[in-house]
Amino acid sequence: MSSLETLNLQHNNFSGSISPLLGGLSKLKSFNLSYNNLTGQIPRDGILRNFSAASFEGNAFLCGDPLVNITCSSPPPTTLVPVPSPPLPPLSSLKNDLLSRGSNNTWKVIIGVVVSVFALSMFIICMTIFVRRSRMKRARQVPNGLSSERGVANSSSKLEMYNRGFRFTYEEIVSHAGYYDTAHIVGKGRFATVYRSDLPGGIQMAVKVFKDTISRPAFEKEVETLESASHFDTLLPIRGYFSSAGEKAILYEFMPEGNLYDMLHNNPDAHVQLDWPIRINIAMGIAQALAHLHKGSSTRVLHKDVKSTNVLLNDKLSPFVADYGTVGLVSKSIVETPGYMAPELNVTKKYTEKTDVYGFGVVLVEILTGKKPVSYIGDRQLSLVNWTLRLHRSGRGREVFSSRLVETCPYPDYPDKALNLAVLCLHELPGQRPTMSEVASMLESLNAVHSPLKSPVFQHDRPLLQGS
What we know:
By secondary structure, the protein is an alpha+beta fold.
């Protein structure tokens, strides 16, 4: 036990006091008892002195150093009336008295309590080791990191990295993601959970761990295909993947500003930050990424789940399209995302480039309006697309725009042109929707503030440039 380096027991509803015996674990580097129901004074024996308040927070009845402003108060003093004390008997008399009253029984009780506390502590430690080893069985360390090769594989697992300079093992990636604890979750969906791994040297990675069992050969082949198509400025780079019988994960670059949905709908500062240049640049970047997936690489890739939560932002609010093609890894059927699903999918049950175009149209309306794709009044579901199309068709399209967007756009007719483009993307008939290359060309024109507006070349005659 003395070689134990990690003991993380947070969020387990443990009760009782902390045993000072834990201070004897001299090699302990990570220690966390936060958010349990522990009580009493925090022991500061041995190695326990090295751990901060974060290791003990969330326990309402713990007290003492290192918890700030939480001291272990003693009972309030009472007024004592001096009473003469009787003289103490000789020490030999006390010893004989204790022996005559059965001091052996007293010592048995004391020893029993100490043994019980020690046994409980050892039980907790053993259970922690068991859980940790069980989790690591799914994430076995790749021998010697990544030497001069892109990846190192063994019979039980494979870590493939596309950066030759990457020197960490999968176990190290997992350990710096808190062994996939809730504190490191940055995204959660039906088929996977995304964790942030804070590696040494300031390296941050997003680890997308899939829930469903996928065959290893199919998973590895599909990720290799996606990676080969991912070399574009506004596609989130795939840094590698991990594959074993019990666990599959894709490793991405971490984006610090979260996703577009949260920026638009859950950020109180978004109204100030998201002016016209930033919004149109985000829309253009998304369109260019989808156009590249459809036509720009040797292998055509359908995104299949275009939505604002799958658009990540860096610290400059530049967009990166994520999760392209991953729906096909976990589901052979249509994945219904309320507010984004093209109407023909209800009939055809088949993804196409034009279903991606429809999803982009919804995202573009989100960007222009700042409104959620779906909202609720009681049990009633309200569709942003239906509301926007109704106003547009009645000649009241300008009512949908975010006030910040209108205030900061240098050309009054540009928002109208962007809305017309979104309406085309949302056409009920797939054949009447533009391609993503056409969409990207139009948005590039709207983003070129200092150059004349270009007229995109379309396959069909569409009233794209008229204002509403």
